[in-house]
Design goal:
The complex is a heterodimer of chains A (187) and B (173). Chain A is mostly helical. Chain A contains 8 helices and no strands. In chain A, helix 1 crosses helix 5, helix 3 runs antiparallel to helix 8 and helix 5 packs antiparallel against helix 6. The longest helix of chain A has 27 residues. Chain B is mostly helical and 173 residues long. Chain B contains 9 helices and no strands. The longest helix of chain B is centred in the last third of the chain and has 22 residues. Chain B starts with 7 loop residues before the first helix and ends in a 6-residue tail after the last helix. The chains are: A mainly alpha (187), B mainly alpha (173). At the A-B interface, helix 1, helix 2, helix 3, helix 4 and helix 5 of A face helix 1, helix 2, helix 4, helix 5 and helix 6 of B.
Amino acid sequence: MHLAFLTGTGLLWSAIGFGLIFGFLLHRGGVTDFNVIVRLFQFRDFTVLKVMMTAITVGGVGVALLHGQDLAQYHIKPANLLAVGLGAAIFGVGMVLLGYCPGTGLAAMATGRLDALAGLAGMIVGGIAYALTFDWVAANILPVGAYGKLRLPELLGLPEWVCYAGLVVMTIGVFALVRKAEAKKKA
Amino acid sequence: MKNPRWNPYLVGALIGLLSVFTFALVNKPLGMSTGLAQAAGACAMPILGADQVATNSYWAKIAKPNWDYGTLFLVGTVLGAFLGAWLSGTFKFATDSEVWTRSFGPSKTKRLVAAFLGGIIILYGARLADGCTSGHGISGSLQLAVSGWLFFIVMFASGILTAKLLYGRSTQA
């Protein structure tokens, strides 16, 4: 069960509303900037990491609380290890060459970035290429190391709350390291 | 011009809260790249023909070109970012970036071609992985999905290597 009472036209309007908030936040977070994104991978700017890890931790605990009360459903993408691993490796190359990811690229385009617009054109071509190769991928890549909708609590054999507590502790630890690195750079 | 940027921890917390709301109210996680694949299907229609798109198993089953929640979310994202830039007076047409120019020079053509190629690569990767920075990186990770964390870690490692190869130490000022 979930609280979802928005359906039909209301659901479609809500998509624009939620998207609008997301795009606004991406811009205000500074992650629509090519320099900010590429410098993450050079350990020179940790803005993206701060935004993502806080979002994961706050969102994770929030959704888990709702799920515990039977008010939200999980949507787990299958752990197709080869496809996800290979896709993520390809994705990392594209992200550093383009300087944006799909979401921040769309948002950057809306702030006037013409390179992000060229990137969007490329993404359309990439999407077409994937659809045209999908049958082969589905037969040869997706089934390799396919473990289904696997979550960390099952993989590690730990209770839910331990995993979420671990997530919070890890996030705090990462932020402490980031703070140290930033202090070192200033000095 | 004042700096429009907010504290990144605050922005992250608000994106986390936004996720909680979308899970609760519309039963949907944040995600981008499925919508882009749907848009790719719509763009492919005049090139490949509507029949070819309709009978393609990916577009027929997984990313049907349609105005639905996923694609309208993209429209909202574009509107929101435009609003953010416009309200803060930071909307500006631009092509180059400091980090890029330092390694590859001021040529706008070079930058646009690279961005186009990067776009092809990133969306192919995102569809192969079945998600991107938002769908896997944020939404998957926050649900403690193995696929989400695997994506996050491998993407990060690949990005570090690529950044070293592409931008090397020339950017270390």
